[in-house]
Amino acid sequence: MSSVIKILESIGAILPKSHFVGTSGRHFDTYIDTDPISPHPKKVSLISKKFAQKFKDAKIEVVAAPAISGIVFAQWTAHHLSQLTGKEVLAIHTEKTVNNEQLLERGFDKLVRGKRCLVIEDLTTTGGSIKKVITALQQAGAQVVQACVMINREPKNVTSATIGVPFSVLAELEVTSYSAKECPLCKRKVPINTIVGHSKEFLEEQRQKRTK
Fold first, then answer.
1. Which of 134, 139, 140, 154 has the smallest number of Cβ neighbours within 10 A?
2. What pTM did the predictor assign?
3. pLDDT tens digit string along 116-149?
4. In whole angstroms, what is the distance from residue 126 CA to residue 59 CA?
5. Contacts of 131 (CB under 8 A, 6+ apart)
């Protein structure tokens, strides 16, 4: 078992055998909740060091990640890369827009122009979020040389070919996801877990459709 998976299990971040809805809107039976990680700086540092060691020879100048959960990993990865290379590596993040895109704010576009960038993220299911971060960086003139996620939940579907830049992972935990229409959990009427994920938003959307 991957050491990253063990770290997540030790803090109860992997929730199996239920019915969840993710940020992508897809449904699955195992949820990886990254919220419990950030209160544990040593664990964040340990995982981020794995990112840094993986790319210590890639001449990375900027580490970028999507807000909010990716920010701590970008910071710690840049810190470890700086220590490993003896050069300052910057850490920046993108922010989600109302149209569900990723945008460089706070003058970060000027910091990445012409720089060799590593894009990291905690999790990926469809790869949509990380691709939006890459697009935002490229539009700002950055050279995205690598992308990497802590855990890839759909390794068969999220690859370098689908992401568009060299792509790798720290660990894989394959979790099959479904659209709402094809979800077998919905068909079996398995209750949706409303504690984590985007289940509440999904249920509200369904309620609104029924009342129209």
1. 139
2. 0.85
3. 999 999 988 788 889 999 999 999 999 999 999 9
4. 28
5. 163, 164
